[in-house]
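Researcher: Structure for this, please.
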Amino acid sequence: MERAAALDMWLRSLVSAWPPGVALVAFGGLGRLQCAPHSDLDLILLHTGVPGIDKVASSLWYPIWDSRIGLDHSVRTIPEALSVAHDDVKVSLSLLDARHVTGDRDLTQQLVEAAAEQWRRTAVRQLARLREITLSRWKAHGELAFLLEGDLKEAAGGLRDVGILRAIAQGGLADTMRPAVRAAHLRLLDTRDALHASVGRRVDRLVAQERATVARMLGLDDGDALLRRVASDARTVTHALDDGWRMADRLRSGRRRGADGKPQRRPVARDVVEQDGELVLARAAIGARPDPSLSLRVAAAAAVTQLPIARATCEWLAAYCPPLPAPWPPEARDALITLLGAGMGLVPTWETCDRYGLVDAWLPEWTRMRSLPQHNPVHRFTLDRHLVQAAYEATAFTREVGRPDLLLVGAFLHDVGKGLPGDHSIVGAPVAAAVAQRIGLPPQDVAVIEKLVRLHLLLPEVATRRDLSDPVTIRRVADAVGDTTTLSLLHGLARADAQATGPAAWSDWKGRLIADLVRRVHIALDTGVLPAPPKPDPALVAGPLPVVHLDGERVAVAAADRRGLLAAVAGCLALHRLEVLTADASTVDGRSLVEFRVRPRYGTPPDSLALASDLRRAVSGDVSVTQRLRGRALAARSSASAAASRVVWHREAATDAVILELRAADAPGLLYRVTSALDEAGAQVRAARISTLGTDVVDAFYLVGGWAEEAERDKIEAAVLGAAG
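Model: Predicted structure, token format:
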């Protein structure tokens, strides 16, 4: 308010005498009296066709430009302004915020009234176009609730969407500006003001380096508290906007009425009926004492039918539905599993129930997890949404398992330990078991849920970090899983978890590795016999040396037995911008064999002829190729992250080797540098597994031998850390 008043006073002073029939009108932030510290000015110089308007405009615009304040301006008559608004929905919305600054007040009032009346007449039609524009904006900026660096204005659920909610309300289409929305709006405005003050210029993206300062200015504990508040407010705005669009659609299509003129009602489940495209409670359910499972049964019906729950029904359930006993009655547990397995209707239904406080009544643990940010860039959602999304993704695998209900519950609870101290798989297992017991699962099923949560990372971690041809790997996984039923549940959960995490968490390669691991473990559990390791490719063990095979993502090389072959091939692959996924090395009849699984680092496959030529020269000891490799490796090392690398040793995790696990920042040529260092330190690598997690890697190297001496391990560790940088 104070900033707006100061700007009004300054703008009035720019013109010494305002002629009749001219008014200065503000819209945007100044029009709403919601000026951020570094906002632009949005102004209309309104006139009735008086002569000399250009001079008045110049006396206004040039001082504003000289002050370095951003300016969106126009000079129009009322008919011109209304004509533009009729054809441009963005202008229509802006005129709804019009406010008189100075000049002819009656002229401003005429525009305000005419613009409001025109909007009321055309709102239903214009909202269809506005929705198209809004969806395009959301696609470009993402969802504010789930972004670590979201745009407070343009992203879905941001300040721009509050303007749409105001317009829907002003058009008389729906009561969108309810107290929760107004409170969320004010908090988002406060956040933007603090961000402007922190940065010292106009910026709407809440970048990571400003979070702590902005949080402190707003009296919040830390940056995570700020992210959670922004996420919650954005979800409130987005949910209200979904309601607003739906109400506009209903008005456009007309309400369905029966022959008696009353709204049509269609039963869809016990105590639940459809009316006007929404689910409401049956009259008998409202009149009777509600049972504790009613809110869950309504939610299940909404998710299955993919129909929204009416706002009044949500409010009634939040106010009058009694708490659930422990353990839950069977109908409540069945409703939860139906809800989790409903597919496309799960996410919007869950969000609605969460907005009205129903989820907290079902699961007290949800308060801790709601809108909890996940800072790993691989994750696209906050923790609570990730859990719901995982349950949705799990529905694709329910027909592959013997207990689809446990798969859904396990997917929904797999990350409940996040946000608690310690390994989230370990600390989350008893939390998940307690929830499973409370919802009424029998003890044997509770034990399965506990195991699923505790082991939910086992398959992807082993598949991407261990040698699947090693019998020790298969035996350890089989011992941990215990039975084929649990194995199939873990397989479904691993895929659902990855797909709910985001595109970077899943690939065809990773899927094949996990499927191969599951197949091998299933054989071991089913027959008690460990599968035999695969035989080497016959093409590599015959014919003149060197042998180079390029086949899509597979690169295989055979050369005379010598040290450094793995490093030479890894360097060639880095030189051609190929990212290594797995590497295997072995010696057969005096030949060194290496086989890599690769993919283009930047999406464009390399020239296969050039790659094959460099591979042949490198494995033959061509010095020129080696010099190129070292030059590229040094350049990549100098640009790598300064984050500290770490080495972890795993003894007795392989048949004939010790596993050295490197956790470091990812960089082109890292595998070449590390394998070269291992070779120079006297370690023989028989296999490597490369696992990339966002900007970090977890690379496992199988070092032949026992490596029992601590001094030798220290020497190897120092060489690896030195190479990783």
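Researcher: Any notable elements?
Model: The domain at 1-122 is CATH 3.30.460.10 (Beta Polymerase; domain 2). The chain is about 55% helix and 15% strand.
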